[in-house]
Amino acid sequence: GADPSAVTDRARERGASQLGTLGSGNHFCEVGFVAEVYDETAARAFGLQAGAVTVFIHTGSRGLGYQVCDDSLQAMLGASHRYGIALPDRQLCCAPLGSPEAGAYLAAMASAANFAFANRQTITHFARAAWNDTFGRATGAPPLRVVYDVCHNIGKWEDHVVDGSPRRVFVHRKGATRALPPGDPRVPDAYRDVGQPVLVPGDMGRYSFVLVGTQVAARETFASSCHGAGRVLSRKAATKQARGRDVIRELADRGIVVRAASRATVDEEMPDAYKDVADVCDVACGAGLARKVAMLRPLAVVKG
Questions:
Q1: For 266-286, what is each residue's pLDDT tens digit?
Q2: Is 227 a catalytic residue?
Q3: CB within 8 Å of 89: residues ≥ 6 apart
Q4: Annotated catalytic residue: which of 27, 58, 152, 227?
Q5: CA-CA distances (angstroms) from residue 296 to 28, 111, 228, 235?
């Protein structure tokens, strides 16, 4: 569904120099290890085992995607007015899915998603190259391979059962990630018997989780589950709380090395700014929306 002609020159200009970069905010590249396995069958399918080293990459479409959104807001504000849609908040501006305005946005959004996949693929290449430069091939360690690459801020046309009948619907996941169940034909062959991997990053100081999708999620949440810990402090509040502290040293004392563009980035993203992702995953799994597969603990974190 991507159409590059729907992407403005300004969006292209912003993205041109950013391919292969993490960006700021909560985006990161994290080296860790599998600290605990909860589901041996699923973990084996994903290539995860206790003690295995992992590289977790979280980033998206960078300035290109941001600009696609920015460019679309004005068009959508006008469309909302033209189609008589009352808005409780300007940021909820929208257009009917069959309208020209929606079609143009979806084509640009899909283009931005493709940029995000290319961006992560480029960073994955750099991570592999750095790994090989550091450890070489002589160690006999298996090469790094991708477990899964998935968007968690995207709209997708999907088939779901609604009120007992199959329907084609448009699912927008923001603050959520897809969690397809075992047997779903949209799950890659290698994972189809166990379900789709669900990647849930936590914070720099604690842990992250790999979950797997379920039939309950397919029935109740359009095959969606949580995608992260979520903040308990705004960036401004986190920076204020970090005054007088050395967050990088605190993390080093836990055995976690951090490299960041600035101290401000580390302060904004300090572990205290986030919920305990174990609690978040317990809620999702307790509701049957996913099952735990493995816990990952961080060793080294690179922040944009």
A1: 999 999 999 999 999 999 999
A2: yes
A3: none
A4: 227
A5: 15, 32, 13, 25
